[in-house]
Amino acid sequence: MPLSWRVRINLGLALVLALLATVGVYSLISIRALVDTDRWVAQTQETRSMVRSMLALLTDAESGQRAYMLTGDTAYIEPYIRAVNSVEQHFIRLETLTQTNPTQHDRLEKVVPLMTTRLTLMEEAIRVRRHYSDAPVAQLLHEDRLVTDSLRSALDDMDHEEQAQLTPRSERSAAQARRAQVLVVGGTALAMIIATILAGMLRSHLERRLLSEARYRGLVEALAEGVFVRDTSGRIVECNASALRILGVSRDELLAMGPGELVCFREDGTPMPLEERPGAVANKSGGTRTQVVGIRRPDGEMRWLLTSASPMFLAGSKQPAGITTSFSDITRRREAEAAVHDQREQLQDFLENAGDLILIANADGRVLFANNAWREALDFGTNDEIIGRPVTDFLAPDCRVRYSGQLDRLLSGESLRDVETTFVGKSGRRITVLGNTTCRFEHGLPVATRSIFRDMTEVNAAQEQLMLAMEQASNANRAKSDFLANMSHELRTPLNSVIGFASVLLRNKQDRFATQDLQYLQRIHDNGRHLLGLINSVLDLSKVEAGRMELEIGTTDLGALIRETLGQMESQVHGRPVALRAIVPEKLVPLRADTGKLKQVLINLVANALKFTEQGSVTVRVSADHNGLPRTIEVVDTGIGIPLERQEAVFEAFQQADNSTARRFGGSGLGLTITRSLCQLMGYRIALSSTPGVGTTFSISFDSAQPIVVNPVEEIPSDQPRVLIIDDDSDARMLLAQYVRDLGCVPVVAGSGPTGLEAARRDPPSLILLDILMPGMNGFEVLQAVRNDPDLASVPVVIVSVIATENRRRAVGAAALVNKPVERDEIETVLRRFVAEAPADKSGQLGELIRRTVSAHV
Predict the structure, then answer these.
(1) pTM of the predicted protein model
(2) Residue 300: which region, alpha, beta or left (left: phi > 0; alpha: psi -120 to 50)?
(3) Is 702 exposed, middle or buried (CB count within 10 Å of its CB: 0-12, 13-18, 19+)?
């Protein structure tokens, strides 16, 4: 009867084990003998090393002794002392090493008295030499030499003995190593051959077995659900990749877990005992158990699993052989459900506690919800007094008809913005609100209207007070400017006399004044001119603030202007270690600007830089685009610099970098204030960057607001209407100009209110597009000036601003309001309304548009 594969494999394994055991025993014997032999070889080598070391120590001691004996220098005794201190340790070690060699041990016994005698003689010779400088050194050294020769002879005999024993011991060690190698290699090779044969037999069987298991595993691994199998003790013995991914562990970690190591939780978040888990219940009941189980992964993340456990039975057995558990990750679904629930509660809480007034009504206009702010504003305590009632019950009588029309628009799908209405509270108190209203649709049918209002009662009152305060402040500022303008003449008249007569007296034609008198006159003259300059600066500042300073726009050669200005200021750097220079591109396009005021700005900035620069340079640098159009002027100095916290203050009136600067350099603190005011008037941007101790750079930018870039009248085709764009932002001007040009009109742009008014008065346009937020003169002031000008009153003005609709109450006289960002279609609509028809018809169209605009926002 042929042997089964199990018996054959077991017999082969037994043979391999026996062979390996035999090889191991013989290898152990050979290795032990090899170790003993290597120990003898090492002992022989160490003995030779100790003998040679003693000979070296003896030589060092003799050298130190002889040098001392001959010279008397105590520094040569140190080698002798070190040798003597080491001899005793070497004798102790040699005595241990020669215990197993009687011959060597006897020789060592003879060496000891010789070494002792030698050291004694050396010590005696050193002692004699130390006390008797005229001692017979040669005789003493000769006596030591006799003993030294005997000692060297004995040590050489010991070294020769060890050398004679070293060779046979080394040969025995090599032979033992070869024998052990042959046993290990040969026995292992034979065991490997037998093991290879057994492996081939086992592989043939396993291939058939694994093929069947691979089909099953492939199916399990392809599942998106996690699957693992527990044995009867509850330990996991198999799992698929999805189980590892869901549980967040490696295969080794999962298979190493005990029955209770996987922490599980009930749906309420409490720990789940082992007996309640699906596997335990299925094992006990013999049926399938399905339930939701929470687990905490090793990374701390909580996962919720829909788990199903079933027992496994072997053929013919009624006892479970294990438990198969499958599970799917439902964490995201549970989180989504919880998030929806939380969002509903948060939304309810947000709506209820929001500061704005929120009102929800059904399609019939009856209240479904009103938040706490709405109830408090109208003096209602509970929802029972509100829910189900028509919205019109809470509206002022004059707003009810309008609400009916607004409701129809909402139900048709239109959203209402900036709705202003008046509610009447329970106590009869009226509140004005402003907000937005939309309608929610389901399946194409209106379901509910949603309104969010803000109580504007106090805001409107505050705005009225603010407008009154602004008007009062404007009147006060105007009165101040009038006062300064009038007083300037009264002040300058006597000052001119003081300065003039002081100049006459300074000539001293008849030599009537002493040197000290002339110094006094010079001070009167200089301080009078300084006071006159201060008065002029205050007057200029008041003119700019009052909007009375006019611009004289013309063509300006910026390069020539800079060179002329610096040439006039060269005297201020004469004799000082300060260089005044200009960096200007060769080809600059002429600039449309007020030459005089631009020169005043340059003089102020350069003079300021020269005042605060004690050494180094002051540079005026111009940059231009690729077409040669000037973009910026920079005034760069290497002066004391301005601290960051004071950089904004230097533009304020009567302010400098700090008090110490004012004391050291002087000045009124008005130069930069006037400079910034002039830049704002001309539509420029001025900025500074500075580092204390390094220097300061003032920059003037033309790209943000060019002063009236107006095409000559003769270049404008007579058949194309002109649209004036007034905006301080360059990008906004460029965009609007492009829209206007694309729609067949000629754009004329201005970077500030005053320049825009000047362009409009010089050649009234067909339409004005006006921004509100502009420095100096804002859009409302420009609008009022246009309406008060008989030549411009008929020109329609359209407000184009980010706060257009927010300030419609102040935009009285505007033809329309357009919010930024503006689209091309909106500009096209505006142009079609106001530019397409003849100017004679525009007054009626303007009135109609105003009525439409007002009715749409009420």
Answers:
(1) 0.33
(2) left
(3) buried
